[in-house]
Amino acid sequence: MKYGPFLTNNFSRIVTISEGISLLNQSDRQDLGLNLSNIVFATDFLESSRLALDYAVAFAHHYNASLTILHAFELSAEAAEAELRSHKPSLSREMASQRLEAFASGVRRVGITVRVDLRDGDPCAAVLGSVTDNKADLLVLGTHGVYRGLEHLLVGSNAEKILHSAKCPTLTVGRHVMAGLDLGLNASQILLVSDFTAGGANAAAYALSLGRDLAVPVELIQAVSENTPADPDRLRAAAEEFCKQLARNPSVPHRDWCDPDYHLRRRLPTNEILELAKLSANSLMVLGVQSVSRLNRHLQTSLAYELVARASCPLISIHD
Length: 320
Prior knowledge:
Elements: H1 5-10, E1 16-17, H2 26-32, E2 38-42, H3 49-63, E3 66-73, H4 77-86, H5 91-108, E4 114-120, H6 123-133, E5 138-142, H7 150-153, H8 157-165, E6 170-173, E7 189-194, H9 198-214, E8 218-224, H10 232-247, H11 260-264, E9 267-269, H12 270-278, E10 283-289, H13 299-310, E11 315-319
Parallel strand pairs: 2-3, 2-5, 3-4, 5-6, 7-8, 7-10, 8-9, 10-11
Antiparallel strand pairs: 1-8, 6-11
Helix pairs in contact: 6-8, 9-10, 12-13
């Protein structure tokens, strides 16, 4: 991928991580790869969610996974009363069911096993419930993939609840992601954004496994923010602890990944990371997020929101 002059000059210290991956034999690749058997895709039937469906289908095709297409809706008081009186589905429920089946029929034509999941009630609870009930290994959302739109949810508690409570990685497709994805899931690289935390270490392991599965390089970026220790000794201690966590994971392909200096050399301010995200159309971005309360929201929460809003590639958030 080619970047403009600004990014080329400022990101010269980002190094593509491909050494060591090619040395793995085929059995190692299978052992260290991702196990994606069940994928949940949440839709509100808007046109903007169709690109997210393309990614859900591409991942399901690549990993031979089953796909659950979820739609969450809230019945009006009149419709709920009509169902209670007649003991029959309301027109709203029947129409939602028909549209869900139409989505599923199109996907089944490409040979993917598809289930439908129609739920009424709170959209966030419906999404999290579907993830749990379907034992999802990946949740896929479009910019307007949940009820009133993820952009609305970004400023409220629902998005936080989804991003921090879903029991699986979450792939979010923002409004600036380019269309044209095919079943081959032909990404050119994985962009790993970390920050010396446990969530970052989990994201690193996931990104390396995904890069290995897709046979594409992984580029490592360590985010620098106001929460990054300014004291050199504290920063090195954070990097050393991060490397200890990485060393426990067998998917780490190269000894440099366990060298604190290796990571310290790959720090970038968040504003430069956001600029990079805008120009990474043919990539997949992986980011660690913290499972914390709203009052103690971590840097990566706000960075994840910013990346979803601005990135030209999908974002996969990994929980600590």
